[in-house]
Specification:
This protein is α+β, with helices and mostly antiparallel strands. It has a domain of 130 residues: Sandwich (Immunoglobulin-like). Helices cover 17% and strands 56% of the residues. The chain has a four-stranded antiparallel beta sheet. The longest helix is centred in the first third of the chain and has 23 residues. The chain starts with a helix and ends in a 19-residue tail after the last strand. 11% of the residues are buried.
């Protein structure tokens, strides 16, 4: 009789511990919220650009977490441009009940882009999509969970401006030199404004 009672008590305790374990287990995907704060284009040139996603990460739990790495796929016009997994050398602290901001830069080179997605070469801009995961760990670096993220955006395709001499007038020419008046017409095929910083030219006569 005592044996059956002891057995029932043991089974009851095990069941109780199991239930408490399930309900006590934290769901990191609910505790950690990730929002896109902004997108910024930097270093735009004929060679490429950097599209940076600025993320706001909020820790709603009572535990401290650390960003240990991330993985992502960067899609341009429904074609994969790059796929990457990165482990951070130094963990980024995400304290309990606090939020942090991080920058997620994606380097885009037009040579690679036109090879991967030839159709965008004639476009003024390209639509992109970033999807991936953030790796969250404890202070010792042990991964405790992964947070899925997905953001969309767009970026310009740089077109080289064109220059055409619309007027050329030789006012005076001598052995010592020449006085030449000319006008240049610039055209900008891009969907954004450009400013002339400096002009370098060479004139050959004859």
């Amino acid at each position: 009789m005592m044996t059956k009672r002891v057995t029932r008590n043991i089974l009851f305790c095990l069941s109780l511990f199991f239930i408490l374990g399930i309900y006590g287990r934290t769901d990191i995907k609910k505790d950690i919220l990730v929002d896109l704060d902004s997108r910024i284009i930097k270093d735009l040139s004929p060679e490429g650009l950097t599209l940076t996603f600025y993320l706001k990460i909020k820790n709603n739990s009572t535990k401290n977490y650390y960003l240990a790495g991330y993985s992502y796929r960067f899609i341009v016009e429904q074609a994969e441009y790059v796929k990457l997994t990165t482990q951070l050398d130094d963990l980024i602290s995400l304290p309990a009940q606090q939020q942090i901001f991080i920058a997620w830069p994606v380097k885009i080179t037009y040579t690679h882009l036109f090879h991967s997605v030839p159709s965008v070469k004639k476009q003024l801009k390209a639509v992109c999509y970033l999807s991936g995961e953030l790796f969250l760990a404890n202070q010792k670096g042990k991964i405790k969970g992964k947070i899925p993220v997905a953001f969309s955006g767009e970026f310009p395709i740089f077109k080289k401006p064109e220059a055409q001499i619309s007027r050329l007038k030789i006012n005076q020419m001598s052995i010592g030199g020449a006085d030449i008046d000319f006008r240049v017409k610039f055209s900008n095929p891009n969907g954004f404004e450009l400013f002339v910083d400096r002009i370098k030219y060479q004139i050959k006569i004859g």
